[in-house]
């Protein structure tokens, strides 16, 4: 390989022997442009000044930030956090200000509800079933799924302001239903002959150790009314079971069915309250 002698102008790389140029050969003011430097995989942490202040847009940190990178005093605002939807990610001990939970936020699981009664629904809108042999709703309320749980229940209190029938053998059947399942039925109730006999009905449906098994009963006391010509109080009770999936929203219904269509055969409900309880 030809080489340059002292005083000779170097015009080609062939005139420079390999591995002879060292750091001291480069002028400190050479200002070699970046494009002529091959620095791929060559820059290390020590090459970067502590005051480099590299802007964020030039850093590729995708999936690279870990918990230790975040300062304990970072105070990241909650608007920059995604919704936490993964189970077991939030401890119950971390929940505060429960009184501020919006009404539409959802249903608290029955296991977390105190044993005291909780009002679920109240109506004072009167409903009358009269002059029909078709089974008709006297009361209906859709219970949110999960309320019964495995050992919880609901209680329905109804004010019956009137129950009367035409003289003769007219009777009414009163059914307590959970979904389409008849939990309890009066069968053919004794003839009710009279005027403006009123009273109360109490019904309970509760889970029997599982979310898809229920027990239920109702009790109704009406009077005084004319029963077979004498003024008496009439009391009806009925019990039964169900196998409904209570994790789904399900209607609780009280229906009335008259044996004879007559304008004098009438039942009127004036108010109803639904309460839930957990054990």
Task: Characterise the protein shown here.
The chain contains no helices and eleven strands. The protein is mostly beta strands. Strands 1, 2, 4, 7, 8, 9 and 11 form a seven-stranded antiparallel beta sheet that branches. The chain has a four-stranded antiparallel beta sheet with strand order 3-10-5-6, with no helix packed on it. A hairpin with a 2-residue loop joins β5 (172-178) and β6 (181-185). The radius of gyration is 41 Å and the shape is rod-shaped.
- Poorly predicted ranges (pLDDT <50, ≥5 residues)? none
**Helix fraction by DSSP (H/I, runs of at least 4):** under 10%
Number of helical segments with 4 or more residues: 0
Work out the radius of gyration: 41 Å
CATH class of the domain at 118-277: Mainly Beta
Strand content: 35-45%
Shape: rod-shaped
Estimate the mean pLDDT confidence: 82
CATH fold-level assignment of the domain at 118-277: Jelly Rolls
Main sheet, how many strands, which sense, barrel? Answer: 7 strands, antiparallel
* CATH hierarchy: architecture of the domain at 118-277: Sandwich
Helix/strand-derived category reads mainly beta
Order of helices and strands: EEEEEEEEEEE
Secondary structure: number of strands: 11
Distance between the termini: 98 Å
Key attributes of the depicted protein:
Jelly Rolls; seven-stranded antiparallel sheet; mainly beta; 279 residues; four-stranded antiparallel sheet; single chain
Set down the secondary structure blueprint.
Elements: E1 118-123, E2 127-130, E3 136-143, E4 153-164, E5 172-178, E6 181-185, E7 197-207, E8 214-227, E9 230-242, E10 250-258, E11 266-277
Antiparallel strand pairs: 1-11, 2-11, 3-10, 4-7, 4-11, 5-6, 5-10, 7-8, 8-9
């Amino acid at each position: 390989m030809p080489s340059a002698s002292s005083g000779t102008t170097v015009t080609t790389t062939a005139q420079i022997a390999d591995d002879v140029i060292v750091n001291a050969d480069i002028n400190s003011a050479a200002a070699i442009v970046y494009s002529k430097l091959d620095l791929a995989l060559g820059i290390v942490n020590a090459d970067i000044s502590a005051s480099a202040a590299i802007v964020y847009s030039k850093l590729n940190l995708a999936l690279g930030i870990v918990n230790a990178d975040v300062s304990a005093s970072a105070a990241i605002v909650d608007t920059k956090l995604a919704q936490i939807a993964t189970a077991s990610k939030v401890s119950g001990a971390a929940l505060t200000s429960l009184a501020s939970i919006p009404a539409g936020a959802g249903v608290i699981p029955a296991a977390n509800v105190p044993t005291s009664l909780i009002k679920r629904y109240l109506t004072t809108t009167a409903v009358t079933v009269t002059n029909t042999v078709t089974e008709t709703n006297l009361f209906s309320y859709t219970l949110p799924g999960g309320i019964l749980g495995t050992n919880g229940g609901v209680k329905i209190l109804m004010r019956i302001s009137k129950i009367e029938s035409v003289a003769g053998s007219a009777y009414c059947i009163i059914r307590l239903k959970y979904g389409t399942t008849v939990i309890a039925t009066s069968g053919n109730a004794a003839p009710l002959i009279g005027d403006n006999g009123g009273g109360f009905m109490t019904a309970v449906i509760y889970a029997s150790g599982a979310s898809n098994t229920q027990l239920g009963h109702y009790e109704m006391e009406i009077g005084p009314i004319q029963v077979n010509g004498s003024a008496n109080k009439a009391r009806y009770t009925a019990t039964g079971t169900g196998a409904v999936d209570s994790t789904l929203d399900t209607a609780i219904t009280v229906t009335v069915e008259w044996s004879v269509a007559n304008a004098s055969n009438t039942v009127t409900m004036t108010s109803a309250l639904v309460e839930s309880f957990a054990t």
